[in-house]
Design a protein that fits this description.
By secondary structure, the protein is α/β, with parallel strands linked by helices. It has 11 helices and 8 strands. Strand 5, helix 6 and strand 6 form a beta-alpha-beta unit.
């Protein structure tokens, strides 16, 4: 079998070569966080801002006994409510990342979709293992729904979404919202979601390139989240959604992933199980795409098509009843 690098196009290879060595070495998470934060800040510094969006941070009540949770709200200027809402969860392997790294994305979605976007700053593992991250995500979603009138959001058109670890948390949040029955969710948009701590699929073994999200980093991220070895017994589906036995009654789902992504097999399997459970599901597997390639190689033809498909699905979900 050809290696991952052999299957990448020249543009993707060039981008990966520019990534610093050891960026995804999670043996020292504090150092990895600083490196990733620095890289993201440098990338954002060169990107043009998105005008026409008001940004405000809110500190909202956490779960009982937990600290308050920061939710950043992006409201497009001059939009008459109520408008749809998107509740967004950033990625980072459960141990990295923050709200600011997705500022431009959230602003762009708010303007492009004519919706209010809320982005949650959940606590990270290993300092805060499961259930801290998902409980923070749920607390933010509950506040977003309860504050819908004040925020100009249509309570019946709140979608959730996230990328990578954020996609996994969004899938878990859909399960938790269904089971608690307090917040209605109209749609879940899962971008190469991190769904299964067991790491038993062929793709989870195949992808070991040191400059993409790889098997070693993935196992480290899951172990940090769970507070015990990845693949252990008695793992909650609210931590690892692929563990859920019942996927019925969940909101319609959109899943997109690259064929060279560590998560491609588990994402395909999850989509198939959603369909079997009667959940309307749209799945896209992109040839030649690796984990995060839509962000790293945004101007490629593949990434442009990816962005258009992703946007069209979200627009349809948010505005079908508008």
């Amino acid at each position: 079998m050809l290696s991952l690098e052999d299957r990448l196009d020249e543009q993707s290879k060039a981008v990966l070569e520019m990534i610093p060595e050891g960026l995804l070495d999670l043996s020292d998470i504090t150092t990895a966080r600083a490196a990733v934060d620095g890289l993201m800040a440098a990338m954002l510094a060169d990107a043009p801002d998105v005008p026409g969006v008001e940004v405000e941070d809110h500190w909202v009540p956490g779960a009982p006994g937990d600290p308050d949770v920061m939710v950043r709200v992006y409201t497009p200027s001059g939009v008459d409510g109520p408008v749809p809402g998107l509740y967004w969860i950033h990625g980072g392997g459960m141990v990295l990342g923050n709200v600011p790294m997705d500022d431009l994305n959230c602003k762009g979605v708010a303007v492009q979709m004519g919706c209010v976007v809320a982005s949650v700053e959940y606590r990270l593992a290993p300092e805060h293992p499961h259930p801290a991250p998902i409980e923070d995500c749920y607390a933010g979603l509950k506040w977003f729904a309860e504050s819908s009138d004040a925020l100009g959001v249509d309570l019946g058109r709140i979608a959730i979404g996230g990328a990578s670890a954020g996609g996994g948390l969004a899938a878990a949040l859909a399960l938790l919202a269904r089971d608690r029955g307090e917040v209605g969710v109209c749609f879940q948009q899962l971008i190469y979601p991190m769904l299964d701590d067991r790491n038993i699929t062929p793709s989870s073994h195949y992808v070991q390139h040191p400059k993409t999200w790889n098997r070693k980093a993935n196992i480290a991220g899951w172990t940090a989240l769970l507070g015990k070895p990845a693949g252990s017994d008695d793992v909650s589906p609210y931590a690892s959604p692929a563990r859920a036995e019942d996927l019925s009654g969940l909101p319609p789902a959109f899943i997109i992933v690259g064929e060279l992504d560590l998560f491609v097999d588990e994402d395909i399997e999850y989509a198939q199980r959603l369909i079997q459970a009667g959940v309307p599901t749209e799945l896209h597997v992109f040839p030649g795409a690796f984990h995060g390639s839509d962000l790293m190689v945004p101007m490629s033809e593949n990434s442009q098509r990816w962005a258009a498909i992703r946007a069209a699905a979200l627009r349809q979900a948010l505005h079908r009843n508008g």
